[in-house]
Amino acid sequence: MYVFRTSLHGQTSLLRDAEENHNQSKMQGISRLTQAFPAHPDDFALHSHLSLSVIFGNAHHMATETTLILFKPDCVQKNLSGSVLDRFQKEGLTIRGIKMMTLSDELLAEHYAHVADKPFFPEIVAFMQKTPVIALALEGEDAIGRVRDLLGPTNSKEAPAGTIRGDLGEDMMTNVCHASDGPETAAAELKRFFNEGEIFSY
Fold it and tell me: What SMART domains is this protein classified in (predicted)?
């Protein structure tokens, strides 16, 4: 932020000082970047496309993850599976496994163990057994968070337009897809819905 004085010479001096401080900050950022890449200290020009967040140490490294998605009966029944899958793939997410399956009482009790003792649990079972579901293993950078962002909030009525649930869902249960909510959950759910040899690397 620049402060202007009534004196023209004073104004010029302040602007020059501000510019020098700005350049000094840039050089400090460049110094930190070259330290991060010690093998190529003279190649900073080749990295001119890097954002200032990288230069000043605020870069966020995204890990490659595999997440579990279930296309629920409302998605299957309304023939939305193709369009939903297309949204995921257009975001650069890769299919590592996909299959259609019916869900047994035992599998649903395990999957929904956190609400299995609730009075509404039989309603969940009835809904999830209306049709077969499609189990999908998707891989990509920060796949777990990105899939959940694409889906929107669990309650479709609260999901904004442009999200999958906001565009295609109806309510809390009839909300198109289930998706893993974290790395540990994803690992457990992938093992629950896919057998050994059904998830592929390519």
Answer: NDK
Binding-site entries for ATP:
72, 120, 148, 154, 165, 175
Going from N- to C-terminal start, the domains of the chain cover 8-55, 64-193
In this predicted structure, the answer to whether residue 155 has a pLDDT above a threshold of 70 is yes
Torsion sign (Cα): 148, 152, 155, 156: negative
Task: Choose the CATH number for 64-193 among 3.40.190.10, 1.10.10.60, 3.40.1360.10, 3.30.70.141.
Answer: 3.30.70.141
Q: Is the overall model pTM greater than 0.90, yes or no? A: no
Compute the distance between CA of residue 26 and CA of residue 45 in angstroms, rounded to an integer: 14
User: Per-residue pLDDT for 20 more than 70?
Assistant: no
pLDDT digits (tens, 9 = 90+) for 25-34: 544 554 444 4
**Distance from the Cα of residue 114 to its chain's centroid:** 24
